[in-house]
Amino acid sequence: MKSAKTSRFNQPFLLRILHGVTGVSLIAAILTAYWTYDTYDGRWGRIPLPQFPEIEGIHGTFGLWTLLIFPVFLIYAVHRGQKRLVQANSLQQLARIGHPSWWYTLNRWINTVTLALLTFALFSGKMMDEKWLPNGELQHSWYLAHLLSWLLMVGAIALHLVVNFKVGGALFLLSMWRWRHHRSESPYFWPSSIAQGWAAIQQGTWIRWFQPLSGLMMMELSILISLAIAWVLPYFKAD
């Protein structure tokens, strides 16, 4: 029989996979974003990194990976992991500083805000032109917005780690990177689950997923629409 401590840190397997892939892609995008800034800009300080013009393309690749996996992670977070996001009473709970539930509520707020900040980072990145930095065009609003978005993401990730450590300690943080899982969570069953989901979409019953329409689901729809616009809008930009 598993101990209470082991069960407490047993995170859903699919959450661990989506969180891990998104997290690794995001951190790689942040690191290469700074290297890109250091190579082409450096107006607000720099460290002596090698000048590597190809780093912008590498950053774009990691950004693209994050953009592709993020919608899946978002849908899972809102529909299956909603307990880790802002709740209806979160604002009232956040005002109860010093209460044991305050840290858990703060953690939910940080998780939710991080989703919005990541959307901002991905959207602003898609609005950029790959020729701006090599041409020395550093005053574009979308470039400055993208710099700000990554700075905010660094702060959000730092808070995410600190508060999660406060809530669950090192064991909680490490639990997100474990490979072990229950038999019921095995990837063996994923194809049938995907088939059932696709059948629901074809039959139109997917509408029930958004009933009742909560604030989190409205945020989810807003983010998904924003990401769709981010894919389409660059085709209409003037050369």
Tell me about this structure:
- With 239 residues, the chain is mainly alpha-helical.
- The chain has eight helices and no strands.
- Helix 3 runs antiparallel to helix 8.
- The longest helix has 35 residues.
SSE order and pairing:
Elements (H helix, E strand, L loop, with lengths): L3 H5 L4 H28 L14 H25 L10 H5 L6 H26 L14 H35 L14 H14 L11 H18 L7
Helix pairs in contact: 2-3, 2-6, 3-8, 5-6, 5-8
Number of helices: 8
**Radius of gyration from the alpha-carbon trace, in angstroms:** 20 Å
Average pLDDT level:
86
Q: What distance separates the N and C termini?
A: 64 Å
How would you classify the helix and strand content by structural class?
mainly alpha
Number of strands: 0
Based on Cα principal axes, name the global outline.
Answer: globular
Quaternary structure state of the chains depicted: single chain
Largest sheet report: none
Which regions contain 5 or more consecutive residues with pLDDT less than 50?
1-7
Roughly what fraction of the amino acids lie in strands?
under 5%
Order of helices and strands: HHHHHHHH
Helical coverage, percent range = 55-70%
Any descriptors?
239 residues, mainly alpha, 65% helix, disordered N terminus
Q: What is shown here, in short?
A:
With 239 residues, the protein is mainly alpha-helical.
